[in-house]
């Protein structure tokens, strides 16, 4: 079957869709000598696991390098499992044919350990091994989920895929391969790193086509917000603001516009345009209220509370967090509750008369974050409470807190 050229973001889309649709054991094999392309994909998967509400409750991301001489030891690392936890495990296999053959042969024999662990494995091998690898692990190959080959110029080619390969892109914005921040390396970076991500280029094309023919179907707001988020991650703040503004422009309903306004408000807040950020959050709250979207309104209230707290308007921030908590409780959103209670703990921690309230809020924050089943969010909340002396690194509230 002839190979069809596929862009890197489309390869990621297939993997993201497989993660969203498939629970339990899964396997993807990648053949590539493109270090930048593999780094880009690894970072995107890690980010996807951390940001996707679909996956946060049941998945974490980790990497295992199969460089040990003891293949069994490496396989033990691959198969390790915490109760109730399923991982996305990126495994970089040995680069030499002999090393890869030895590891794959043992992996083939020990395949039941991987299946029983229930993780989703992404195994990266050199492109030159694409022909021989199936023969080294025939039984494992028979249960593969996705197989891709990546060319060195970052054009990705699908070699074959199971049913999950036909699923649609689900969420999480795109991200460029991280570039070297060393000034002496900038010239080398510019020669190999993409100047514009496929997702941003795609959004520019779609938006330009819509502007040229407004009678066409409006572009999806999510595409613009994904492009904006990507630009923010790569510190291209001008583009991030532009794409968020365009998201509000193309929105065909109030909910889409409200989500765009929150994203734009976050950017304005980050860039110090406080008055603009305040106005944007207030507009978003009004739109969510009009549409009776309580979860959206809670998110906007929390964002406004964060900004008010940063500006020192503590009483206003407390009122906003309290409103958000009531809505999050109604929507049973533990993640939002965890963040809001952590912020209340931080505010009350500065008042010697309210240290007890701060400890109670910290306990609620940790309980809700744990219930959300989102390890990155839990770690972030624990660290925020450690920083203000309300919790220890293990996530236990310190009951003998003394205000300092």
Overall morphology = globular
What fraction strand? 5-15%
Count of helical stretches: 19
Largest sheet, order of strands side by side? 1-7-6-2-5-4-3
Distance between the termini: 70 Å
Flag low-confidence runs: 1-5, 152-195
- Kindly state the percentage of residues in helix: 55-70%
Would you kindly provide a brief summary of this structure?
With 404 residues, this protein is an alpha/beta fold. It has helices spanning 8-21, 35-51, 53-56, 71-79, 97-109, 111-117, 133-136, 138-142, 186-192, 198-212, 221-233, 237-250, 254-270, 274-290, 294-310, 314-331, 334-349, 355-372, 375-387, and strands spanning 4-6, 26-32, 59-65, 86-92, 120-125, 146-150, 156-161. A hairpin with a 5-residue loop joins strand 6 and strand 7.
């Amino acid at each position: 079957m002839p190979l069809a050229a596929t862009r890197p973001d489309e390869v990621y889309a297939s993997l993201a869709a497989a993660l969203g649709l498939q629970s339990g054991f899964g396997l993807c094999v990648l053949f590539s000598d493109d270090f930048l392309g593999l780094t880009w994909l690894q970072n995107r998967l890690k980010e996807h696991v951390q940001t996707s509400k679909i996956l946060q409750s049941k998945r974490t991301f980790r990497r295992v390098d199969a460089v040990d001489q003891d293949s069994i030891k490496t396989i033990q690392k691959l198969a390790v499992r915490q109760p109730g936890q399923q991982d996305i495990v990126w495994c970089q296999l040995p680069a030499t044919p002999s090393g890869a053959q030895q590891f794959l042969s043992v992996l083939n024999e020990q395949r039941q350990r991987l299946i029983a662990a229930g993780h989703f494995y992404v195994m990266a091998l050199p492109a030159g091994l694409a022909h021989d690898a199936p023969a080294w692990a025939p039984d494992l190959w028979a249960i593969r989920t996705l197989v891709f080959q990546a060319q060195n110029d970052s054009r990705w080619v699908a070699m074959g895929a199971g049913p999950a390969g036909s699923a649609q892109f689900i969420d999480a914005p795109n991200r460029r391969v991280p570039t070297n921040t060393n000034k002496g390396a900038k010239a080398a970076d510019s020669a190999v790193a993409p100047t514009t991500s496929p997702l941003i280029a795609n959004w520019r094309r779609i938006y330009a086509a819509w502007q040229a023919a407004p009678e066409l179907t409006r572009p999806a707001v999510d595409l613009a917000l994904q492009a904006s988020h990507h630009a923010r991650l790569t510190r291209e703040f001008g583009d991030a603001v532009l794409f968020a503004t365009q998201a509000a422009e193309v929105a065909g309903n109030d909910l889409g516009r409200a989500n765009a306004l929150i994203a734009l408000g976050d950017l304005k807040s980050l860039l110090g345009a406080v008055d603009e950020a305040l106005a944007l959050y207030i507009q978003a709250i009004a739109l969510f209220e009009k549409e009776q979207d309580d979860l959206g309104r809670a998110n906007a209230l929390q964002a406004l509370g964060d900004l008010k707290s940063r500006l020192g308007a503590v009483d206003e921030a407390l009122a906003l967090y309290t409103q958000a908590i009531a809505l999050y409780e109604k929507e049973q959103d533990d993640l939002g509750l965890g963040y809001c209670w952590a912020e209340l703990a931080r505010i009350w921690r500065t008042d010697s008369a309210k240290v007890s309230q701060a400890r109670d809020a910290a306990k609620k924050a940790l309980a809700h974050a744990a219930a959300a089943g989102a390890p990155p969010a839990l770690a972030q909340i624990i660290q925020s409470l450690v920083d203000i002396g309300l919790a220890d690194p293990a996530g236990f509230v310190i009951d003998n807190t003394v205000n300092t």
